[in-house]
Design goal:
This protein is α+β, with helices and mostly antiparallel strands and about 1250 residues long. The model is unreliable at about 1-5, about 30-55, about 110, about 350-360, about 470-475 and about 650-655 (pLDDT under 50). This is Trafficking protein particle complex subunit 11 domain-containing protein.
């Protein structure tokens, strides 16, 4: 509704009132006159702990605690006494002082008119003066206005008196009981005090009762005589107005309080009945609304209008309903609240449809806001009473009617469906209604079943404004908006409205633009945490649906919560909820819902940049199990392929592979494995088959894996099958036998693996069987532990993991099959093997090797040189062996193409490979063979791992029993030189041509710095630059203008630095074409270790590439090289537009205290594409030294961008970039020309004549 309604309603309007009882004599301020009585020893020794007898000080405290323990009651708590005799009537107990008097109305000293309440619209100092309807202060006042008063007094005795006790005398009636004169005097004073309070409250129409506190649990006849005398003197009835209480247990005190409540409740109800009679008399005096002329509003006048007749009638109906509610007459109170509700609805609706005498409330005025709040609160009261009366239909009709009223009037109030205030009000109403139903259910209310509505003949129940108004019919079903649901349903509606509230607010905020900060309503709404409110409501709804065991709905609500997190940008929380509920839908095969959840998860993953989750969702969405149109599934596959191949790298750091467990999702490809025989021997082939079976309709587009990895429990048998990348004919059943094509990888990440290549492309409804074999070389258990299908992407490696040896749940194992090739041209067929399920384990035997491998070398090694490594192999067998040494060099950080192994320093380059096989020949028993190999490490520093694998067979034994032994050594390789570069672009003087110029040149000064990093002295023969001959471009060229490099054969020690300068000219003949990055070539350093007779080595250091700077609008300032004080000179500004768009600009010259000048101060014009405009200013220097030049400030606007200030560059200056050895720019070394706010020049002193 309005802004005030966005906050909580006044609590006084919503609480349930009960009769108010005022007590005095028990509070600490009144206890100074009461005497304490000690606990008797008999009581202490005989009473058990749960029922301890209370003494005087404990008695007053306990009574006060019992009476004031509950100050607020719910409707169900307040009316519980009506159906349960054991429960006392409710009272709101307040404590007052002994001299308490009721508030008096202030009378006017200058007027004899009747005084009014300070909360009446007729009282000038009232908050509702003169046209207000109601204020929560009125309810608050009556919450502290007693309907009955109970005073607690102490019966005086001699226990704490120190003087001599007087003798008892015969009483005035000559009774048998002697009277103590002192006690009689105290009793008479007490009776007089009680009588005065009784008369005062009786005159006010308030029931008064007195309670005398006795110090002894058991009273004698003298005490009874004193009590009887006091009661007679004060005129109180012993059954309804005069009570005594003595020390006792807590249960006894509670019984006393219950009796007091029951006795005082009827006078309290009578007090409110009298109030109702007075209100009805006042209402009867009101004129009929039809006899009062219709009021017209004069908005031009500031004078406030008095409250209308309808307003007074509404006021009286509300008061009547309140007092009836205090009496717990719910039926009567409901009727009065309904009358008040209809009146306030008439006031809020349009005046054209209102009866005569109604006063229209100005929209969004203070009184209108008060009326709105009051209408909402009365509506809540009515709904609550109907639920209490077990009339769910009427309660729901009241809610929907109130919402329909609001919906119909909201546009005229300026808060239609397009405003967030509209949805805020709906959300609050639904939430309050849900709270009412929840409270009713906790009190024992049972929500009717929908079938009860179908049997009902009432078809006029309005539906919710959020649903269509379908009437209830036993044949067509029923509208859920017309049937009372459990609280979760309305919490969900409130959440929906809250979510819509947020969307409307965001729309209005975007529409307001820069004026949003000036709109107080938008600023206030901006402080509201919509997402938290929505999630809170959805959580409440989730708990209710869970309580009513609506398992499917709880999952839906969890999805709604996730959707709310998604809309508010909390994608990490959203994806957690989607994952949680996705497990249930996946397990229970709700594939349609799972498809939607996976799509939402995919969106969240994209927003978070979580490519791992995105790829996992895309892979599962390819499955046939998830219902989807074929074109949609094809789009999913294309998106996956794009993400794998076209997405740029998000980080240069290596990531761990993404492993997707295919048994935990719906796979689009099934994988099985079979070993042909469970028993095998050392040296014999062990055959196996990998079966890949696709879904019937997926993948829609032929799909290709980069590799397939077969993992064994022994890593040396691990096999990687890489894709050939060649399209072949598609076969429904295909057998690929790679048993004889396996080769061992000598370097790289899969060094030592068996490797082959075959077609790993798959298509829909296909079975592809890959057959291979291994030759086991040692005993033990040979087991296939896993199958990995690899997909490579710019993000990293994706591994589809298929578990081995696990059968699907509730599925019997099938017979073992083996695919065998048929005659040429025929389709291969499956052969049935013994057993069921998958066979992935076989038993193997083998003997360990008996040779020793040692190394001899001098580390560290330098890149680009041949480093000698001596390998010693000793035969410890008892017989001669024939051995072969397999050597491999591998970078510890990854594969390096320039690493290789040579058998001699003069080996042909074509023989340079990273792995070598060296035939060692025959080695006798106990003999040692030494082999020298040369290692070459290129381009990348770091440790190299040298893997050596010695395979041998014992002469005279079975040659097929090959025994092998592997050793490795780590050798550090360091770069001999380190290079750094500094690039400086030089702004050249532009010609003053105004025609279109497609050509442009830039000069780049490259300074190269080389540092010797070798631990040994290096002999440098030459340093030369070599141009890159491979670059060719039709429009752009790079030429070397000049160079400064001078080096003779010299010795460089560690840390020696050498600098060289190169000036390049970058030229393009067509600025409209895309400008490439032009390689500047590389530096070749020829060197060798000093003092060693080795061949010369060459190290290539790549130079950074050059590229024309981004072509944007620029202002070039042309300043003379020499400026003298007192001599005028010409300052030129050239507005250069190298783009293909017209630039509209406005320019203004900024003043400088150091110069006076002549020229245009402000100009406006256009610069055509690929052209320039020149402005000359004649300047006269006034100051010498480094001074600020007059700067031409240009604001330009082009088609593709808005207005912005154009940077100014000076001729002869430029931007400097510093690059490291990796050709990456270092931080904080690039100066942005746009950050230069001023242009400076140096003015020399006057010339000497």
């Amino acid at each position: 509704m309005c802004s005030t309604n966005m906050h909580s309603y006044p609590l006084d309007y919503l609480l349930h009132p009960v009769p108010v009882m005022a007590i005095y004599g028990l509070s600490p301020s009144d206890e100074s006159s009461l005497l304490d009585a000690p606990i008797s020893e008999e009581t202490n020794s005989q009473s058990p702990k749960p029922s301890v007898t209370l003494t005087k000080p404990n008695l007053t405290c306990s009574l006060l605690e019992l009476l004031t323990s509950k100050t607020e009651y719910t409707l169900y708590e307040a009316t519980a006494y009506l159906s349960n005799q054991q429960i006392p009537p409710p009272f709101r107990v307040i404590t007052v002082s002994k001299d308490y008097v009721l508030p008096q109305r202030q009378s006017s000293a200058t007027s004899s008119l009747t005084t009014h309440s300070n909360l009446s619209p007729l009282s000038p100092d009232s908050p509702v003066y003169p046209d207000g309807i109601m204020t929560p202060l009125w309810i608050k006042r009556h919450l502290y206005h007693p309907s009955v008063v109970v005073g607690f007094y102490e019966l005086w005795d001699w226990q704490n008196e120190t003087g001599e006790r007087a003798k008892r005398e015969t009483g005035p009636l000559a009774s048998q009981i002697l009277i103590d004169p002192t006690e009689r005097e105290y009793d008479m004073n007490l009776a007089n005090e009680i009588n005065m309070r009784r008369k005062y409250f009786q005159d006010k129409g308030i029931k008064f009762a007195a309670v005398l506190i006795l110090k002894q649990r058991h009273i004698d006849s003298s005490i009874e005589e004193r009590l009887s005398s006091i009661r007679k003197q004060c005129g109180l009835d012993y059954k309804s107005s005069f009570f005594t209480v003595s020390p006792g247990t807590m249960n006894e005190l509670q019984d006393f309080v219950n009796i007091l409540y029951r006795v005082m409740y009827e006078p309290a109800a009578q007090f409110y009945s009298n109030r109702i009679k007075k209100i009805r008399k006042k209402k009867a005096k009101l004129p009929s609304p039809s006899t009062v002329p219709k009021a017209t509003l004069d908005f031009s006048s500031n004078e406030k209008q008095p409250l209308s007749v309808t307003g007074w009638s509404l006021r009286y109906d509300f008061k009547t309903a309140f007092f009836q509610e205090c009496k717990q007459e719910i039926d009567s109170s409901l009727k009065s609240y309904e009358a008040a509700y209809h009146s306030i609805v008439d006031l809020l609706t349009s005046s054209s449809s209102s009866p005569f005498g109604h006063h229209q409330l100005p929209v969004n005025s203070k009184r209108w806001q008060e009326a709105q709040t009051l209408a909402d609160c009365i509506n809540i009261k009515i709904c609550k009473f109907y639920l209490y009366l077990n009339d769910s239909t009427a309660a729901l009709a009241q809610l929907n009617g109130h919402l329909h009223m609001f919906q119909s009037c909201a546009p005229s109030w300026g808060i239609g469906e397009q405003t967030f205030e509209y949805w805020a009000s709906l959300s609050k109403q639904y939430r309050m209604f849900a709270d009412l139903i929840d409270a009713a259910v906790q009190a024992g209310y049972k929500i009717p079943l929908p079938t009860e509505y179908l049997l009902s003949s009432n078809g006029n129940v309005p539906g919710s404004p959020l649903f269509s108004n379908t009437t209830i019919s036993s044949t067509t079903g029923c509208n859920p908006g017309s049937i009372l649901q459990h609280p979760g349903f309305y919490y969900h509606l409130a959440a929906m409205c809250c979510a819509e509230r947020r969307r409307r607010f965001l729309e209005l905020e975007r529409a307001a633009g820069g004026n949003a900060e000036k709109d107080n309503s938008l600023l206030a709404e901006k402080l509201v945490d919509h997402s938290s409110l929505t999630i809170e409501l959805l959580t409440k709804s989730y708990e209710q649906f869970k309580r009513y065991r609506n398992g499917r709905m709880t999952l839906y609500l969890a999805a709604e919560i996730a959707g709310t997190y998604y809309e508010t940008g909390k994608y990490d929380m959203a994806i957690k909820f989607f994952e949680r509920i996705g497990k249930t839908y996946r397990k229970e095969k709700w594939n349609m819902v799972l498809t939607s959840i996976l799509r939402w998860s995919l969106r969240c993953a994209k927003e978070l940049g979580a490519w791992e989750k995105a790829i996992e969702c895309l892979i599962e969405l390819m499955s046939d199990e998830l219902p989807m149109a074929e074109n949609k599934r094809a789009d999913i596959q294309r998106e996956l392929m794009d993400m794998l191949s076209k997405h740029p790298e998000s980080s240069v750091t290596e990531r761990s592979p993404l492993v997707i467990h295919m048994d935990q999702i719906n796979p689009f490809l099934h994988c099985h494995v079979q070993l042909k025989s469970p028993t095998n021997f050392v040296g014999s082939k062990v055959s196996y088959q990998i079966v890949l079976q696709t879904n019937r309709s997926s993948p829609q587009i032929p799909f290709r894996f980069n590799s397939l990895r077969i993992l064994f429990n022994n890593p040396q048998y691990n096999t990687i099958i890489k894709d050939l990348g060649i399209e072949t004919d598609v076969k429904s059943t295909e057998l690929i036998d790679f048993s004889n094509d396996l080769k061992r990888i000598e370097e790289g990440d899969h060094s030592g693996w068996l490797n082959t290549q075959c077609d790993l492309g798959i298509t829909k409804d296909q079975i592809k069987v890959l057959q291979g074999c291994i030759v086991p070389e040692k005993c033990g258990e040979l087991k296939i532990t896993g199958i990995m299908l690899d997909l490579m992407s710019s993000h990293g490696q994706i591994e589809l993991n298929y578990p081995i040896g696990q059968l699907p749940e509730q599925q019997p194992a099938a017979r073992r099959k083996w695919l065998e090739a048929s005659d040429e041209g025929k389709k291969p067929v499956f052969k049935i093997l013994d057993g069921r399920g998958e066979l992935s384990i076989a038993n193997i035997m083998q003997k360990p090797p008996s040779i020793d491998i040692e190394f001899d070398y001098n580390a560290p090694a330098l890149l680009d040189e041949l480093f000698a490594l001596d390998v010693k192999i000793k035969n410890t067998e008892t017989e001669s062996i024939t051995a072969t040494l397999y050597t491999e060099i591998k970078n510890a950080e990854g594969i390096v193409d320039d690493d290789y192994i040579a058998l001699s320093s003069g080996e042909d380059a074509k023989d340079h490979v990273a792995a070598k096989d060296i035939e060692l020949g025959t080695i006798g028993s106990g003999q040692t063979v030494t082999k020298t190999i040369f290692l070459h490490g290129g381009s990348i520093s770091g440790s190299r791992i040298i893997n050596l694998n010695a395979k041998y067979t014992v002469i005279g034994r079975n040659f097929s029993e090959v025994v092998e032994k592997s050793e490795s050594v780590r050798i550090p390789f360091i770069a001999p030189f380190d290079a750094s570069f500094e690039l400086c672009s030089i702004t050249e003087r532009l010609e003053r041509s105004i025609g279109i110029d497609l050509e442009k040149s830039e000069k780049w000064l490259l300074t190269a710095s080389f540092r010797c990093f070798s631990a040994w002295d290096l002999e440098i023969k030459s340093i030369a630059i070599e141009e890159d001959k491979t670059f060719s471009h039709p429009y752009t060229s790079l030429s070397l203008i000049s160079k400064i490099e001078d080096v003779d054969i010299t010795i460089w020690k560690t840390g020696h630095i050498y600098n060289a300068n190169y000036l390049f000219k970058l030229h393009t003949t067509d600025l409209t074409e895309a400008q490439p990055s032009v390689p500047a070539g590389h530096i070749v350093i020829t060197w060798k270790r000093s003092g060693v007779d080795n061949e010369l080595c060459k190290s290539l250091i790549s130079l950074p590439s050059l590229q024309l700077q981004q072509q944007n609008l620029v202002v070039v300032s042309d300043v003379p090289d020499e400026i003298y004080l007192g001599e005028p000179f010409t300052l030129s500004y050239i507005i250069y537009n190298p783009t293909e768009h017209i630039a509209d600009y406005t320019a203004s010259i900024e003043l400088s205290e150091a110069f006076v000048f002549s020229g245009y101060k402000q100009v406006k014009g256009q610069v055509l594409p690929l052209s320039r405009t020149v402005y000359d200013y004649t300047c006269y220097p006034l100051l010498s030294g480094k001074v600020k030049l007059p700067k031409l400030k240009v604001i330009a606007m082009q088609q593709q961008s808005g207005e912005k200030e154009i940077p100014v560059e000076m001729v002869g200056t430029g931007v400097t970039f510093t690059l490291g050895n990796d050709l990456q720019a270092r931080q904080n070394n690039v100066m942005d020309p746009q950050q230069q706010q001023f242009i400076f020049a140096f003015v020399r002193a006057k010339r000497k004549l």
